[in-house]
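stage 2 :: seqdesign
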């Protein structure tokens, strides 16, 4: 009976916010798709988000392999913003291949992987993906195959829109000044007029001072935002903990469902044995014969097995 019981939707582990010490030290990466086929059969987005500034890089592909991820990181992250400390991604083969791991190791980049079937553990990438897809939907309406053409405009809008956690735009936190938007081209503004009149070195010094101030302010505001978000989420948590050796069931997903079971498919599969617990609420499991599962699983997708 344990395997057919309903799946609970109440969080079972406290939310731990992930923050970055400075711009471009930590990036979250993810793949979005498949999307409606565009020219050259492009239907996937490779997205990277800086955890501090919320700056986003994204490119469209027909398919995404580990070599594409490697080239993307080199061109869009390393060559533009320097070598990051950490790249957080899911357990997809594109991010977990030997080739990509070796590339990161050579640059002293640490790979961190979110637990399978628990997108909250790479929350920054998931939040960015949702925003980009919603923006593309608003732009396209019926012309869904033109999303690749609209992508640069969507990225520009995202980069120049103030974010709630930081109170500033990704552009300002990245470059130390606000972007000159189209309305400032034809119509003089205080900023563009001042830039023509002032000495360039003086203006540069002012912008550099402003950049430090706005980044410090954004860091404080983001920490406060994350603390309040965690407190709100954690009020709903009903903790579940498992000791080593405990028998547990794992939630059934589409790719693990029994073929032909249809509506009679059990909600849980197993049992498995808990072999190790991580601090982030994930557990390493093994089969009853001692064979370990490849990845740790979040407690949200597990429940204790009663014989």
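stage 2 :: out
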């Amino acid at each position: 009976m344990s395997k057919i019981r309903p799946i609970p939707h109440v969080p079972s582990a406290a939310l731990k916010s992930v923050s970055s010490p400075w711009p471009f030290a930590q990036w979250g990466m993810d793949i979005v798709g498949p999307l409606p086929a565009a020219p050259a059969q492009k239907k996937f987005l490779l997205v990277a988000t800086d955890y501090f500034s919320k700056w986003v890089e994204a490119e469209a592909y027909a398919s995404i392999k580990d070599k594409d991820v490697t080239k993307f990181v080199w061109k869009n992250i390393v060559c533009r913003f320097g070598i990051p400390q950490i790249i957080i991604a899911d357990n997809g083969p594109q991010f977990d291949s030997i080739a990509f791991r070796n590339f990161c190791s050579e640059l002293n980049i640490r790979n961190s992987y979110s637990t399978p079937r628990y997108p909250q553990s790479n929350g920054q990438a998931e939040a960015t993906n949702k925003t980009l897809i919603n923006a593309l939907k608003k732009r396209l309406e019926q012309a869904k195959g033109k999303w690749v053409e609209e992508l640069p405009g969507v990225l520009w809008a995202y980069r120049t829109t103030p974010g709630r956690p930081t109170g500033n735009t990704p552009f300002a936190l990245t470059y130390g000044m606000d972007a000159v938007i189209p309305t400032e081209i034809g119509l003089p503004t205080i900023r563009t007029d001042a830039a023509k009149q002032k000495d360039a070195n003086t203006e540069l010094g002012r912008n550099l001072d402003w950049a430090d101030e706005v980044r410090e302010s954004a860091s404080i505001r983001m920490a406060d935002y994350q603390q309040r978000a965690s407190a709100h989420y954690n009020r709903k948590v009903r903790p579940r903990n498992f000791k080593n050796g405990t028998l547990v069931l794992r939630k059934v997903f589409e790719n693990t469902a029994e073929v032909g079971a249809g509506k009679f498919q059990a909600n849980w599969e197993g049992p498995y044995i808990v072999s190790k617990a991580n601090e982030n609420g994930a557990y390493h499991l093994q089969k009853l014969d001692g064979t370990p599962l490849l990845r740790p699983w979040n407690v949200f997708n597990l429940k204790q097995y009663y014989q």
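stage 3 :: structure notes
- The mean pLDDT is 75.
- The helical segments are 66-81, 98-106, 123-140, 147-159, 170-175, 183-186, 190-197, 200-234.
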